[in-house]
Amino acid sequence: MSERVVVGRVRRCRGLRGELVVESQSDLPGRFEQLEKLYLVTPTGEQLVTIQSVRQQSGSEVWIRLKEVRDREMAMGLRDATLEIDEAERPEPPPGEYYYDQLEGLEVVDTAGKHLGRISQVIPRGAQDLYSVDTGSGEYLVPATGTIVKKVDLETGVVVIDPPAGLLGDADAD
After folding, report:
1. Residue 95: inside a domain, yes or no?
2. DSSP state letter for 126
3. In this structure, are 17 and 65 located in the same domain?
4. Domain containing 111: what range?
5. Of 11, 16, 31, 44, whose CB has the highest number of CB atoms within 10 Å?
6. Can you tell me whether residue 25 is helix, strand or coil?
7. Dihedral (C-alpha) 68, 73, 78, 80: value to the nearest 10 degrees?
8. For position 72, which CATH number holds?
9. pLDDT digits (tens, 9 = 90+) for 100-150
10. Whether residue 75 sits in one domain with residue 112
C-alpha cells in the first residue's frame, strides 16, 4: 500500500443534501477540481469516494459533494474526517518549494551546525509561511524567507537557518 497525503479536513456539513465544508490542506489552487476520487478517512474506517461537485470559497474553505454522501445526516457524522490521496498522485513541487508534510519533523540547525529543534508545524501566513520549531523546552516561529532559511535538505532531513539576533529569544543568546 502506498503512503497517503491529507488534502483536506471536513469541518461541518452544509445544506440538506450532504455538502461538506472542507478545510483544504493543499497549497495547490484548484486541487479538488483536479481530483475525481479520494479516500474519506474516519476513526471507524476509510472509503474510496467520488467527488460529485466542488465550489472553492474564500481562503482555504472548499464545499464538496461526494457521490456516496446522500444527505445531511450522513454528512454530519463526517466532521473531522480527513480527505486523502495516494502520495503518487501528488505532483512534484516547483524547485525550491516543499509540501508542508515534507518539512514537518525536519531538524533545524543554525549555520554553525548547532541543533535548534525540529519543525513541528508549517503555518501558512500570507506572504510567507512560518515554521514552528519545537526545541524540546519550548517553541519559536521562524519566517520561511530566503534571508533566514538558507538550505532545506530533504535527503538528510535538515533545515539550515541564519536567524537574526533576537528571533530565537534565549536560544540565540549563547
Report:
1. no
2. T
3. yes
4. 100-169
5. 31
6. coil
7. 150
8. 2.40.30.60
9. 888 999 999 999 999 999 999 998 777 788 999 999 999 999 999 999 999
10. no
Q: Where are the beta strands (DSSP E) in 130-171?
A: 130-134, 139-143, 149-153, 158-161
Rounded to whole angstroms, how far apart are CA atoms 47 and 96? 34
Cell 540547525 sits on residue: 109
Residues of the chain below pLDDT 70: 1-2, 27-29, 170-174
pTM: 0.64
Q: Are residues 23 and 71 in the same domain?
A: yes
Q: Is residue 104 in a domain?
A: yes
φ, ψ of residue 100 to 5 degrees: the values are -55, -45
Asked if 120 and 148 sit in the same domain, the reply is: yes
**Same domain flag for 44 and 74:** yes
Chain position carrying cell 459533494:
65
115's grid cell: 541543533
- Write the DSSP string, 75-121: HHTTTT-EEEEEGGGSPPPPTT---HHHHTT-EEEETT--EEEEEEE
Total count of domains within the chain: 2
